[in-house]
Amino acid sequence: MAEVIALANQKGGVGKTTTAINLGACLARRGLRVLLVDVDPQANATSGLGGSNESGSLYDALGGAARLEDLIVPSSEPGLSLVPSSPDLAGAEIELVDADRREYVLRELLLPLRPRWDFILLDCPPSLGLLTVNALTAADAVVIPVQCEYLALEGLGHLAATLERVRHTLNGSLRLEGLVMTMFDPRTTLAQQVVAEVRGHFAQTFRTVVPRSVRLSEAPSHGLSIVAYAPHSAGAAAYAGVADELLARRVAS
Amino acid sequence: MAEVIALANQKGGVGKTTTAINLGACLARRGLRVLLVDVDPQANATSGLGGSNESGSLYDALGGAARLEDLIVPSSEPGLSLVPSSPDLAGAEIELVDADRREYVLRELLLPLRPRWDFILLDCPPSLGLLTVNALTAADAVVIPVQCEYLALEGLGHLAATLERVRHTLNGSLRLEGLVMTMFDPRTTLAQQVVAEVRGHFAQTFRTVVPRSVRLSEAPSHGLSIVAYAPHSAGAAAYAGVADELLARRVAS
Ligand SMILES: Nc1ncnc2c1ncn2[C@@H]1O[C@H](COP(=O)(O)OP(=O)(O)OP(=O)(O)O)[C@@H](O)[C@H]1O
Ligand SMILES: Nc1ncnc2c1ncn2[C@@H]1O[C@H](COP(=O)(O)OP(=O)(O)OP(=O)(O)O)[C@@H](O)[C@H]1O
Ligand SMILES: [Mg+2]
Ligand SMILES: [Mg+2]
């Protein structure tokens, strides 16, 4: 039975898409059935996995023009399937405002799909608008990528409060899986301070820290995950570590 | 007579806030009267300049509860004033949907203020929703910060198309001032490729490239601009270069 995990953080550029693609790839390489749903109109997860939205995108399903299962396409990563996004998904933010049960649309679309997957990952846009609220309402757990930068710290309190609000009003079983520290540069004290600060506030912070690595930022230009593009790189090792921690928590509990 | 410049890019984490704060500070240091309006619910420009939203934020003016001029507060940077933001501004995206002339609200709020400033900078959130559309409708020109990363390239076509649409339907005098390349790391070929690609597509790209510099990411943790925090740093020199180019274009034309 699938577990739905949202990758969310309203701060921009913190590694949501990079974590969605590469955590997804690492889980798929362990033989798990993984679906990545691109909930961001920027469609970076779609192109970062070599996917195309020519035969439709999440926008079509949210508007009722297509069934979600008909939108699923393979990605460049064997075992990792994709529901593509497209720029018109930005329109959904406004179009959903007056819809009935507007926060539950994605949750209800995903219900019939869950039995076929072990993990469904939702890559969110950098905002707390209706698309992200839909993803949080559909999710069992949230993974929050946090860039090792000062400005990335600022929004965490507000994000945590938003998760609480969603849990109380829309999705009682939503839980915080953990925070993944990204783009860590060991040469700067700032990065070390940010990691210490986040670890101090959030017990569920993943032990694995993802280093800043140019290979990670090159991989999407080839439409490949880090494990396909540079399997022996520090970035590939780090995301394998994140996947291991995630799975180990499920065995242990 | 003020010129209104929006800092916009729907891609997250590309340096919109860092450019708004530091371009603003460099213009103010040259004796110009500069107002920075924080149009992002994350309120990073507000805290990055040591500002507080305790006595109100842009949200109050958009909703008609306060006059914009009553919200102006000093920042840590002499000569650079600020209209703070707050997290409830995210609600404006939904609340504005049914408002009359919903795209013109900010433009109309800024009209009476323009004579008192030389430049009004608008720091936008990472989306193309109603807040950013309001900023683009209010602006005379747009500066697009572009991170020297592959994923930052992907959205530029869509952003350029959005600017065209705003120019045709909402704000006929909107023009593209230029693109500022940010977080440039000369050691990676990827960064050099991205700069060459952007320069090839957009003639108005600023000559000055902002290097990746930890001083720039430390400055907001002190509530200071780069010129106050590390005046002799590469980041301070780069933003002085961007300010010089911006002003030189106004003299030349
Ligand atoms: N560990 C890393 N090392 C180096 N570069 C990275 C790393 N993680 C992500 N990047 C790069 O940093 C940029 C931001 O990452 P990404 O796009 O994944 O963030 P995001 O949170 O999904 O952004 P958005 O808020 O726009 O959706 C991208 O260009 C990406 O390639
Ligand atoms: N030239 C630079 N060198 C190093 N770090 C930088 C540079 N410019 C910005 N940063 C850091 O990178 C992160 C992203 O920058 P910033 O927050 O200004 O981007 P943004 O586009 O405003 O993000 P958002 O999309 O969330 O509004 C911040 O932590 C900032 O301090
Ligand atoms: Mg993303
Ligand atoms: Mg910003």
Average pLDDT reading of chain A: 96
**Strand content of the residues of chain A, in percent?**
5-15%
List all distinct small molecules, including ions and cofactors, that are bound in this structure.
Answer: adenosine-5'-triphosphate, magnesium ion
How many individual helices of chain A? 12
Order the strands across the largest sheet of chain A as they lie in space. Answer: 3-4-2-5-1-6-7
The CA-CA distance between the termini of chain A, in Å, is: 17 Å
Gist?
The structure is a homodimer of 253-residue chains. Chain A is α/β, with parallel strands linked by helices and 253 residues long.
Walk me through the structure.
- The structure is a homodimer of 253-residue chains.
- By secondary structure, the first copy, chain A, is α/β, with parallel strands linked by helices.
- In chain A, 42% of the residues lie in helices and 14% in strands.
- Chain A has helices spanning 16-29, 44-48, 58-62, 89-95, 105-110, 130-138, 150-154, 156-169, 189-201, 214-218, 226-229, 234-252, and strands at 3-7, 34-38, 73-74, 80-83, 119-123, 141-147, 175-182.
- A 7-stranded mixed β-sheet of chain A has the order 3-4-2-5-1-6-7, sandwiched between helices.
- In chain A, a hairpin with a 5-residue loop joins strand 3 (73-74) and strand 4 (80-83).
- In chain A, helix 1 packs across helix 12 (234-252).
- The radius of gyration of chain A is 17 Å and the shape is globular.
- Chain A starts with a strand and ends with a helix.
- In chain A, 54% of the residues are buried.
- The mean pLDDT of chain A is 96.
- The A-B interface holds A 10-14, 17, 41-44, 47-48, 87, 90, 93-94, 97, 125-130, 147, 149-151, 154-155, 158, 185, 188, 190, 214, 217-218, 220-221 and B 10-14, 17, 41-44, 47-48, 87, 90, 93-94, 97, 125-130, 147, 149-151, 154-155, 158, 185, 188, 190, 214, 217-218, 220-221.
- Bound molecules: adenosine-5'-triphosphate (2 copies) and magnesium ion (MG) (2 copies).
- One adenosine-5'-triphosphate sits between chains B (12-18, 40, 42, 44, 126, 182-183, 210, 212-213, 216-217, 220, 235) and A (11-13, 126, 149, 151-152).
- One adenosine-5'-triphosphate (ATP) sits between chains A (12-18, 40, 42, 44, 126, 182-183, 210, 212-213, 216-217, 220, 235) and B (11-13, 126, 149, 151-152).
